Amino acid sequence: MARKNARAVNGILLLDKPLEVSSNGILQRVRWLFQAQKAGHTGALDPMASGLLPICFGEATKFSQFLLDTDKTYLVTATFGVRTNTSDSEGEIISEKPVNFSQAELELAMQAFRGDILQVPTMFSALKYQGQPLYRYARQGIEVPRDARPISIFRFELLAMAGSNADFIVHCSKGTYIRTLIDDLGEALGCGAHVAKLHRTQVGPFDAAQMITPLQLDELAETCHQSTDFTTMDSLLLPMDAGIVAMPKIVLTGAEQHRLQHGQSCQVTAQNITAIKLHGPDDSFFGIGEITDSILSSRRLLNTAAL
Fold it and tell me: Rounded to the nearest 5°, which phi and psi values hold at 106?
């Protein structure tokens, strides 16, 4: 995309990521369709996974971390009896065992994976060890130490079971590896398992009903590019603070807003809040702040000149 054609686009698009494309690949495609100067996603999906991928444009990228840190929901199809080195269908088979558990035994085994648990991250992840992502070591056949990390599984429900396959819904906290969850479940049942299909249906306040497909974008973009009028495409974007609707907010006076936007703090009645939405006297959102001992200071502010 030529820089001279790039637009200052701000907002959040809820994309239905298709299979067999990387999150970064589809991000760059969508950025080009919008002719946007800046865009980023909020938590990658593997090429074999599909579903909800929030894409932040422009100033909205300043608040993408809050979506990275939120809970998510997935529809998962697991294949039992076959374990792979990546814990999904794209990996190499490392063991095959007969599947002879009942549905009751499966549901009993699932109980150990609900609530607050510890999970050892997969070697095929982007977590880093000595400055290098784990997947680089894994591709060289090197296994490095990984500490178990606390996660929360809010919902882990069996939807259907047919032969060696089973469908689940998983609602989990940030940092949860669904592939590892299914691999661990397979080990608990003594037969091994891997993820055959993975579809994300919810990220924080966003759900699948709001998603736009790449095909829909392509059709709109063809008209918008010809007319150079992007009004229709821009209407698909959610407000920049749509991902943080549950965060508490504070409405400030014009003088207080001016102080914060010029690097100063101000006195408020609240005591301690680590993240609070900042709204001006007209109730317009202009950033995120924090309160320590009744002193409000800014954390991330919108560049109003870019809006």
Answer: -65, -50
